[in-house]
Specification:
This protein is an alpha/beta fold. The chain has 8 helices and 25 strands. Helix 1 runs parallel beside helix 6 (287-301).
Length: 396
């Protein structure tokens, strides 16, 4: 039975960041990383962004294996015994840990009908599959209007593919953007040639002479060479639950990123943590949190023991448009849009009870830290005293 000072369950960006955090504090402690994927850690955002804009593939790899670790790929942890501090793999192998990190990420949500032809876009292997199809085929249908859906529709269209989108909302981004900006984005996609099936959802997928036919709830029939499903992810909490770890919308951790078992930590997409700036528990499925939270967990596992009070930001690219954002982006809150050029460049503030709860930096760069500081201020703020609060500067 092999023993390690640290075992990390997961092989994504969070796991990679945790290894780097451990190594900053403990250069020699033994580390084993266990991943269900066949590939070592890589950056996920380029799968819907840079790799479709000619970013070289070699740039996505994290090179975690260079940090003196044992990397077990295509491996599944079937059980964790906190009393024995032991994990069991699907091969039957048993490993003992000193500290354990659950960086189990999330699994794409399934479409509400039986099918095997849609590609649930999440991994590097999914990217390779779509790239291969795109090298020979022209028609693509994207189910879902969130981050994956909007970014993949843009990426495919920019690569001269005929792309359709099906999503249940009336407007793209309506759960994040104020209504006028959501209307602009929706028409912007139409102007780029994306066929939008709004206020609708996929009801089934059938095969017909080498093509796929997507039928919608409203009765539309869309022919595609490939169907990409991006309907969100659910946090992978099953292993934690079977271990007796508390879960609720993710794996619950304290300010040091520990679960209710003090030698077991969690971070990344699967972790539910308290954020003091927002004054509530949140779970964040974005790159910045994966990197910052993963590294913080690694350092704490190695003995640093500092609270995680960071408010992560997120970003997206949609054709020539792009944004960075931090905090709560809920259009049901009071919003104030401070445009330099309407819908092209500006800052949108989301307010509640006189405090800034979120900031959307629309084609504005280099202002995330200032936005974060604004969220920390008690206020009270009004639209009048927010005008010009954050400078609009186009330095990407």
């Amino acid at each position: 039975m092999k023993e390690y000072k640290y075992i990390i369950i997961g092989g994504g960006m969070t796991a990679d960041a945790a290894v780097k955090g451990i190594r900053e504090v403990d250069p020699t402690g033994t580390i084993c990383m266990i991943s269900t994927e066949p590939d070592p850690p890589y950056s996920r955002p380029p799968l819907t962004k840079g790799l479709w804009k000619n970013t070289p593939e070699q740039k996505i790899w994290k090179h975690t294996e260079d940090l003196i670790i044992e990397l077990k790929l295509t491996c599944l942890v079937t059980s964790v015994d906190p009393a024995k501090k032991m994990v069991t793999l699907n091969s039957g192998e048993e490993l003992v840990y000193g500290k354990l990190l659950m960086a189990t990420g999330g699994t794409p949500r399934s479409l509400p009908f039986e099918e095997t032809s849609a590609i649930y876009y999440r991994t590097y292997r999914d990217y390779l599959k779509i790239r291969e199809i795109a090298s020979a085929k022209e028609n693509f249908t994207v189910i879902g209007g969130g981050f994956i859906g909007t970014e993949m529709a843009a990426a495919l269209t920019m690569n001269s593919k005929k792309t359709s989108m099906i999503f249940p909302g009336k407007l793209l981004g309506e759960r994040v953007f104020p209504s006028d900006l959501a209307e602009f984005v929706t028409e912007y996609y139409r102007g780029k040639g994306v066929r939008l099936f709004t206020d609708d959802s996929a009801a089934g997928i059938t095969q017909n002479e080498g093509s796929l036919i997507v039928t919608t709830e409203k009765g539309s029939r869309i022919t595609a060479d490939a169907v990409i499903a991006g309907v969100g992810i659910k946090p992978n909490t099953e292993l934690a639950e079977s271990t007796g770890i508390e879960t609720e919308n993710g794996i619950i951790v304290d300010e040091f990123l520990r679960t209710n078992h003090p030698d077991i930590y969690s971070a990344g997409d699967c972790a539910n943590f308290y954020n003091p700036l927002l004054g509530k528990r949140i779970r964040v499925e974005h790159e910045d949190n994966a990197n910052k939270m993963g590294k913080h967990a690694g350092r704490n596992m190695a003995g640093e023991n500092k609270p995680y009070d960071y408010l992560p930001f997120f970003y997206s690219d949609m054709f020539e448009l792009g944004y960075e954002a931090v905090g709560e982006l809920d259009p049901r809150l009071e919003t104030f849009s401070d445009w330099k050029e309407k819908f092209k460049e500006g800052v949108i503030y989301y307010l509640k009870d006189g405090r800034v709860r979120g900031v959307l930096l629309w084609n504005v760069w280099g202002q995330v830290e200032a936005a974060r500081e604004l969220i920390s201020e008690p206020g009270p703020f009004t639209p009048e005293n927010l005008k010009g609060k954050l400078p609009v500067n186009r330095s990407s």
